[in-house]
Amino acid sequence: MTAICGIWNRDGRPDAAQHVTQMRRALAPYGSDRSAAWDDGAIALGIGLARLLPEDRFDRQPLAARDRYHLVADLRLDNRAELAAALGLTPRLATLADADLLLAAWERWETATPDRLVGDFAFALWDAAEHRLHLVRDLLGNRPLFYHHSDRRIAFATMAKGLHALPDIPVAPDPLTLLDCIALAPRRGPRSFFAEVSRVEPGQRVTFHAYGRIEAVDWYDWDTPRDPGLRRDDDFVEAMRTTLDTAVAACLRSDESIGSHLSGGMDSSAVTASAALQLAQRGQRLSAYTHVPLAGARLDHWGDRTLDEGPLAALLAARHANIDHVRVDAADRQIGDDMDAQFHAAEYPPFNLCNQVWMTEICRQLQHRRERVMLVGAMGNATISQQGVERLPLLATTGAWPTLIREGVALHRRGWTPQRVASSVIGPLLPPRLLDALRRLFRGKSPPRDLLAYAALNPALVENPDYRAHLEQHGHGLHLPSPRSPRALAVSILRHTDVMGLTGKGQLARFGVDQRDPTADRRLIDLALATPPHLLLRDGQTRWIYHRAFGERIPGEIRTQAGKGLQGADWPTRIEQARATLATELDRANPVAESLLALPTLRALASADTGTGRVTDDQRYAQRIKLLRGTSVAHFIRKAQRRND
Question: Which residue from 220, 272, 487, 562 has the highest number of Cβ atoms inside 10 Å of its Cβ?
């Protein structure tokens, strides 16, 4: 990872380099191995490099080509060999940094370049001949990039603090973005968590033209699946396995030791198993970190979920002699104890403070063991292990009744109740409000889909027609919709948030750890979105393709567990330990927080006694979700306004 920044004074003022120096200084925590800048009077580009790849020792950014193109890039290219072959650079590949390949690609393909890249990237390219500045991000936004524009100047930076280093850009929270954060609404549009700071959206190119026009182009087409050229079911199965292995191999590109987050779930297990197999061929070891609950803690027994994933993770680790399995209970950590550090490093309010505890502790242990790369499987539920139940409403809407009946019967034989099958078929086809009513009628209390059950929104805003219209515009009303096909679900997961890049930058700045997600690989995404639905749900077997592709690698106990793992299942005890911290933060809330949040409700929750018995649905959604997310947003607002009172 690297930090980039730049200034284009469109009014011609020649002091761009002076301001870029200020920006580079502010961004130093994200890249301090090498710092450099290019200055052309009214425009200047800057970079702070963090050497995390073997080829980074050849990186000499900012780069220039033909006195026309000038480039700064924060990137890890995962298809280096393919790009080099297409560009005729294979003989020189071993001594080329990723930025060298990117610049050569732009010389050849110009604005068509992003669609040819695989990996995590954010870059800025100045076209001196056309007087255009291009800002580009990868498909999922795994590298952040922000900008501020006015009639006289364009400024961009990897993190908002790079822009806030400029004296005329105010530091203030953006209320609408924070409201969407509280409501779990999908991120759409250029707004960021900070006022007057815009983000380049994932999968987008933003071009600034000389005479003021701003052009935002989505370079990836989410609506049209890409034909992988596969026709047989077995071909898809083999492609799933080999594509994941290819993605993992690309993420293993490092001169440093490597760790992996290993839960008891399918995605991290597949990533860890692939990494262990490949590292074993090199004679290298892999540390696999698993969060386990606090000893003696009160746990949330939520349905059939697995509360302690340690034993399942141990089954996978035991299959590989080169895995060092590390169980992490984060006993010395507390909810909210590092919110200040998180704010300064990642610059967004964490959505899940109870999981933040063990995620941070795993990074601390990676740092202690001098492991600079952490593999995760965060996007696997959209790319490699999608359940496929959304095939049922798809069969209904396409009139494939015999197949629908056959799958319904097969699911029933595997233990599904008739009500569950019927709800999976009909539910996504009904208006969300009606679906909620029917669920309560036939099943009693069920996990609420009414966002007010867990969103700490100010009640006055809930009734505001403008905000309700805003949510509806993004397909996210007061009652949450259900996807009607497997592909629709995958797209909604992949496009829902835009914080993975910020999370990665925060971990890099605090612990020197580079988070990499093979399940977010562009090649896996293309394959997953083109996978026929019958390979996801088949003969009543959910995740059919996963079982076929990885069945020999993943223990049956992991693949056939009844429910998902519940990470942070010890949250009832942790909240009791942190109540004073939470209450103090809510008491410090300022008028902006008062206007956005249901603060009286949050303060009551912070002082409530959840008892000692089984956690109820109401407690779970009110305490774990509403209270913790609301407190996180209140803290962000206070810090973004530079207040410590």
Answer: 272
Pairing of strands 63-65, 146-149: unpaired
Query: CA 434 → CA 449, 473, 474, distances in Å?
Result: 11, 20, 20
Q: CA 394 to CA 424: how far, in whole Å?
A: 11
Q: How far is CA 423 from the centre of its chain?
A: 29
**Are the C-beta atoms of 571 and 624 separated by less than 8 Å?**
yes
User: Which pLDDT score is estimated for 472?
Assistant: 78
What residues have CB less than 8 Å from 331, skipping those under 6 apart?
294, 295
CB-CB contact of 600 with 554 (8 Å): no
Q: Which of 251, 245, 349 is nearest to 631 (CA)?
A: 349
Burial label, 522 (beta-carbon count in 10 A; 0-12, 13-18, 19+): buried
CB burial of 563-602 (b: ≥16 within 10 Å; e: otherwise) equals ebbbbbbbbbbbbebbbebbbebbeebeebbeebbbbebb
C-alpha span between 61 and 64 (Å, rounded): 8
Cα–Cα distance for residue pair 190/200, rounded to 1 Å:
6
Is residue 446 pLDDT above 60, yes or no? no
When pLDDT is cut at 50, 70 and 90, the band that residue 504 belongs to is: very high
Q: Is the pTM of this model over 0.90?
A: yes
| Cβ-based neighbour number of residue 475 at 10 Å | 12
d(CA 191, CA 171): 14
